Each structure stands twice: as structure tokens, then as C-alpha cells.
Amino acid sequence: MLLVRSLRFIRGSVTFEVKGKFAERFFNLLGRNGIPVFSVSPTKDGFYATTTVKKYFKIRPFVRKTHVRVHVVKRQGLPFLMKRYSKRIGLLTGVLVFALVLLLSGEFVWEIRVNGNELVSEQEILQSLEEMGLKRGVWKNSLDVQKLALSLRREYHEIGWAAVNLIGSVAEIEIGERDEGDEVVEDSSPCNVVASRGGQIVSMEVYDGQKAVSKGDTVKQGDLVVSGVVVSSKGKTILRHASAKVMAEYPEQYQVTIALSEEQKLIAGGAKNYRYLNIGSLRLPLFLAGKKPDECFERVYTRPIKVFGIMLPFEMTVHQVIPAKTEMVTISKEKAREFAEQKFSEYERQKGDCQVISRKISEKAEGDSIIFTADYVFCEDIAKTELILLNSRTESYDKA
User: Fold this and answer.
1) Are 295 and 323 contacting, i.e. CB atoms less than 8 angstroms apart?
2) CA-to-CA distance for 100 and 340, rounded, in angstroms?
3) Mean pLDDT of the chain
4) Beta partners for 343?
5) Could you tell me the CA-to-CA distances from 282 to 94, 237, 290, 298 in Å, in that order?
6) How far apart are CA 350 and CA 357, in angstroms?
7) Got the DSSP string for 212-256?
């Protein structure tokens, strides 16, 4: 429907009113002779109808034949606009160029978003993608998204998987990172299970391999937990891909220092935004010069410019300035305990899948501060696979 309306606008159309006893016969003759008529609606004395500019000039013989009266109600479309603004060719050219830019901008990448990255910074990923050919302004059809994703995985060991999705004029980069310190071990490779950290084992689930420790044993980081070297019932030594879940408890201490009085930078007025229009490497200020406060909070961010949901090939940078002042702020011990609790909760979230078995908090005053100490007992899976290095003297390797 949108395409039909667009074609009618480009060709131009005329809406006219038909009056007379034989208006229906008039429309029938138009249809038989290939003159399109659309948007027909009744009026008090006749009908409204619309046809193209070219066909409108061919209806006169049928007007005389059916003795109806026809007069133009409305002229619309590009031909009439061009005629109206023929003396303003610059304005018309600008409108056409702008429409062309809107139409073609969807075929290019104007925004790149990176999601799921923590170990590798967004700036590093964007720089690598630019070297691979993905950058703002690139033609979408020139990109091999599968090759880009594979190149990212090869360049960064921390990236376990990656995907590049082109959605409109936006390139969405989805990143899945490996756990820090994990080695990539194929399921068929011979390996041991060692302790990723020290602790006391509270449970073990061995899926493959030979147990080297038992429940209740204490291990250090790197100690062998499950061996991939197994002796069969026939006395033959075989190598296996050892696999297990080993839960261990371990103590850990975490300290937080909260100052009861300190200088803080506080907001002292409303925010002021300084906007810049970025066109390629050109940066145009959209404000009059002004003086920045001596003390202030600052934030700079860049956002794309969209018109009717279409990304334009330029963007807006906003430099936000908020006046500030420095004051001495004093807090109570109860407030300090609340701040410390927030720090402890944040620390526990950073531990990921670790279970908090117990937590005992103590506090000690030191000058104008309070030192809060949390003595934890955590429990987590400490199983870590470690490759068994093979050499030429290895006589057998049984995967079964």
C-alpha cells in the first residue's frame, strides 16, 4: 500500500467532482477504456473521484458523451509541487537529496553496539572490528558477518563465542566470554581435574577418571583431585578425560573502611548541555561560547540521530556540565554500617556462583573512620580441567 501511494505521489493525481444523471455510465466508460479511477465517494449531488494527471486529460470525450459536469477539486503530487516551487529549485533539490539520504541510509551501518563483554573492553573490540572492515558508514552488503564473528574469537582468547547481527542500520555484536583463567580443553583430550583454589572438600561427583582425594580432605590450589590416568581391570594404563564436580569450603576475609567525615563534591545547580553535530570528522558546535564552572561534574555522550526510525549518517555529541561545590559531610555510625553492608553485598555478587555459608562482621574505630571486617566461609565448585601432556613414550591412549 505504501508503494502504491508513493507511485501516485510521484506521478501526481487529480481529484474531481462528477455531477449528472449518467455519472455511473461515465465511470463505466472510463474503466472500459483503461482510465484508472480510485477513491470514489458519493457527494450530495454526485461523486468525488481521483485519477492520475496523465489520464485526467483523456476523460473529456466521455464527459461529452454522458452529458455530465466535471470540475477539479484538488491537485496533488510531485508534478504540482515542482511547478509550485519551480522558482525555488534550491529548496526542492535539498528536499530530494534529503529524501534520497533517508532512503539509502538504511543500507549502511551507522551504529555499532557491543553486548556481553566484560574481560575485553568495548573500545578494543570496536578497534578490531574497524580493522576487519566493520565501521560506521560501511555498506552492509560488503560485510561477511560469520567471518567477522570467527575473527573476533580467534583474536581474543577471552571470547568463547561471538555473533554479528545486522538490524536495520545497527550492527549488534553479541559476545560470550569464557570464565577468567579457564583453559579450552576438548572433550576428547586426556586431562586431570585439579583444584582451582584451596579449601576443604565437602562433596564430590566424579563423572570420569580416578578420585585422588575424598570428602573431608583439604587441598591447595593446583592439587590433583581426579586423575585422568586410570588402570583397567586387566592392568593396562589408559588416559581419560577426567570430569567432576568438587564442592569445597574455604574461609575469606574482606575489609571495608568508611570515613565518618570527609570532603564531598555536591551538585550546586542545574545541568547545562553543550551540543555538537558530528558529520564525519567535522564537529560543529550548536551553542554560543560560555564559561565552564571551576568545579563541576561532567559527562560526555554521543547518540545517533534518527528521523522516522531511520538512522542518519551523522550524530549528536552532548557535553553535560553540572555546577558543583565541595563541603565537609559527616555521617552517623548507623549510616556507615548501611554503606558497609552495601559494599559487602556488592562483594558477594562479584563472587558469582559461590555460596555464602557464613558471615561474621566486626568493626573497629580508627581515627575518623570505622573499619568493618567480614569473615566469610564460601563454598564453590573448585574443579578445573588440566591437560595431560603426551610424549613419544606414551604407549596407549584409550578414549573409551
Assistant:
1) yes
2) 58
3) 84
4) none
5) 20, 70, 21, 22
6) 16
7) -S-TT-EE-TT-EEEESEEE-TTS-EEE-B-EEEEEEEEEEEEEE
What residues are paired with 274 via a beta bridge? 319
pLDDT band at 187 (very low <50, low <70, confident <90, very high): low
CB 265 within 8 A of CB 326: yes
Q: Cell for 232? A: 583397567
Whole-number Å distance between alpha carbons of 39 and 80 = 20
Coil vs helix vs strand at 291 = coil
Return the amino acid letter for 312. L
DSSP state string for 136-155: TT-BGGG--HHHHHHHHHHH
User: Nearest Cα to 38, choosing from 164, 30, 46?
Assistant: 30
Cell triple for 143: 560485510
Query: Looking at residue 398, what is its pLDDT?
Result: 46
Unique residue bearing C-alpha cell 505521489 = 9
The grid coordinates listed for 103 are 532512503
Q: Which residues are CB-contacts of 354 (< 8 A; sequence separation ≥ 6)?
A: 348, 378, 379, 380
The x, y and z cell numbers of residue 54, run together, are: 496523465
> For 4, phi and psi rounded to 5 degrees?
-60, -45
| Alpha-carbon distances, residue 184 vs 89, 147, 157, 161, 163 (angstroms) | 65, 21, 9, 12, 19
Cite the DSSP H helix spans in 33-120: 53-56, 60-66, 78-84, 89-105
CA distances from 268 to 38, 271, 296 (A): 64, 10, 8
How far is Cα 374 from Cα 360, in angstroms, rounded to an integer? 5
91-124: per-residue pLDDT in tens? 667 767 767 766 666 678 878 889 988 888 888 9
- Please return the burial class of 318, using the count of CB atoms within 10 Å of its CB with bins 0-12, 13-18 and 19+: middle
Handedness of CA 45, 51, 53, 57 (dihedral sign): negative
The cell numbers describing 333, all together, are 555510625
Rounded to an integer, what distance in angstroms lies between the CA atom of residue 245 and that of residue 205? 5
d(CA 226, CA 201): 13
pLDDT for the residue 377: 96
- 297 touches 324 (CB < 8 A): yes
